[in-house]
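Continuing from yesterday's entry. The apo prediction looked reasonable, so today I'm repeating it with zinc ion included to see how the binding region is handled. Same sequence as before; SMILES copied from the compound registry.
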Amino acid sequence: MAAPSLRRLIPGRRLDASFNWPAEAIDNLDSSFHVQEYLQQLIRQDHTNINTLIEIPDSVDRQVWQYEHLRQVCIELNQLVVALECECTQANCPEMKADGWLYLCAAHPTTQSCPAIDYIIHTLDGATILLNNSKYFPSRQVNTFQSALWISIPEPSLKHFQAIARRLYRVFAHAYFHHRETYDLFENETCLYGRFLLLSKTFNLVPTELISIPSDANLDHDENEQADDDDLDEHSLDDTQSQVTAIED
Ligand SMILES: [Zn+2]
Ligand SMILES: [Zn+2]
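Holo prediction written out below.
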């Protein structure tokens, strides 16, 4: 077997001159984080081919694949935050709204209304901290200098995937309904929502009834609608405001 190529990022090198090592099969990646590296390699190869990105590699556990995708979405959503920062201000968006819903931020001792940009940042930070918490996701933290560290994710931790995905969905929805031009530019460049939506549908992360962004004709994956009555736990409805419904989550 050929020796694996050297995969190093050189300080000071331009982005377009980086990552220029040959693609490797996942089983050839000798790294503690080989699943993440493999996913990022697929994204660099063709980020528009979302069907290929979501397809679970043979040697990877189904839950681990979801986990690495969610981590990656958090990483890439930070680019959307940067794009939104100039227009999604406390003055323009004093509350986190999307499609007639008001979302309360769960990143505080008691849930509270945060300006949209703060809600987004708090949500991304919270999701990232949770996904990196060795109490819930222990295997990834173990460094044994061997690949194939991941075996599985503890069953009780799986419920966090849906909670995280629901909150991440709102970030896309706020951008879509309140900052459409920025959303379109970001989505055209990254296809991140398309990837996230297919991930959600494939692994039942976001219930269909919470999908508020209209199906887009230029998404190249199948948009089969599926009834999914699971996971309605976050509905804490307050209809005191016309049009706007508060969700504590
Ligand atoms: Zn905004
Ligand atoms: Zn907050």
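Comparison notes:
- Strands lie at 96-98, 101-104, 245-248.
- Residues 32 and 144 are 8 Å apart (CA to CA).
Will overlay with the apo model tomorrow.
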